[in-house]
Amino acid sequence: xxxxxxxxxxxxPTRSSPPARASVPSSCAPPDPPLPRRLARLAAALRAPREPxxxxxxxxxxxxxxxxxxxxxxxxxxxxxxxxxxxVDVLARPSGSxxxxxxxxxxxxxxxxxxxxxxxxxxxxxxxxxxALDPAQVARAAGLVGALSPSRVNGLGAMxxxxxxxxxxxxxxxxxxxxxPAGVASAKAAAEAAPAxxxxxxxxxxxxxxxxVLRAGSRGSLESAGExxxxxxxxxxxxxxxxxxxxxxxxxxxxxxLRIWLEDEDAHVASGECPWEEDWAYCTxxxxxxGVPLERVSLQREYSSLxxxxxxxxxxxxxxxxxxxxxxxxxKFGAFMDAVGTHFACVASGHYARCALHGEPGYHHASxxxxxxxxxxxxxxxxxxxxxxxxxxxxx
Length: 396
Description:
Layout: H1 2-8, H2 37-47, H3 52-63, H4 71-75, E1 88-94, E2 100-106, H5 109-121, H6 127-131, H7 135-141, H8 150-177, H9 181-193, H10 207-217, H11 219-223, E3 229-233, H12 237-248, E4 253-259, H13 277-290, E5 294-298, H14 300-316, H15 323-339, E6 346-348, E7 353-357, E8 364-368, H16 372-379, E9 391-392
Helix pairs in contact: 2-5, 3-5, 5-8, 14-15
């Protein structure tokens, strides 16, 4: 023993000192479970390009394959993904055969791509597959971490978690219905009456269906609007002050942010960011401080057809267009008024214009405020078409 100690330089092990275990490197962590076959194939196709910009372009092209909103999606409650910067709706339901029925819609190209990734990747899978799905694993597998902004990656997770909650509720409802003979008959009738996956609530370009989608997006506020005032927020100072003036006066208000930017996000895919996120963040901060609910309404299609087409037409004719005035008259006080504003006592904005009754009873026209220069800059010339709802301008 003494010889061994002298030659080795360290004491021999004793029975009270168990041999040290070799440390396991972090790289030996258990691998992720395999994704569903179709989802794994779509994720691999998105991850294939080395450049983040190319990955996002592929994601945008994937979104082009997403079908229009189904009748089930438009009619259902609880479909809005609240944590997304874009306006996203998803719906996950169990079918009688045990497979998934998935629907989704979004108002931006990248968000629509994320919805398509889930809807197409999970088509035909069992309910337990979605319930076990890890959002972080999907983002890693598709190469989206670092390519998309953190807010959009979080949005993907919010979509999956909402789908999982919807599915859990649907499975529980089916189990409760199966407990009684009447429930079995009712569930069977509902399954036979339900539209097939992909059944659309609107044909391409259908204005009636489009208005239904807009109304569905604000269903919670429309049902209880009553004497509320809808306030248009842009992210600027004027509309924020208008909201605060009404709120401080004791008026019950609900704020709306109109998304009117075009869906062409190719110029921003390198960073995965949206040009309107800063405006939305400012509106959110203003409403949180005042304790006022805030909703998004997407009017991108209306803005493109009513404002952008006009701008191009006027420029080609050699005339100087004024897109701001056309946006006010045709989109903010046109499309929004028709789809949402009529459900409120009035619509308020940060424009420097006063509203008065003229002509046909029940219709209103906007005209100049106390400061004619600000009124001309805001709504000049005065709105030619009557407004279906009163317009309040606290700053006028």
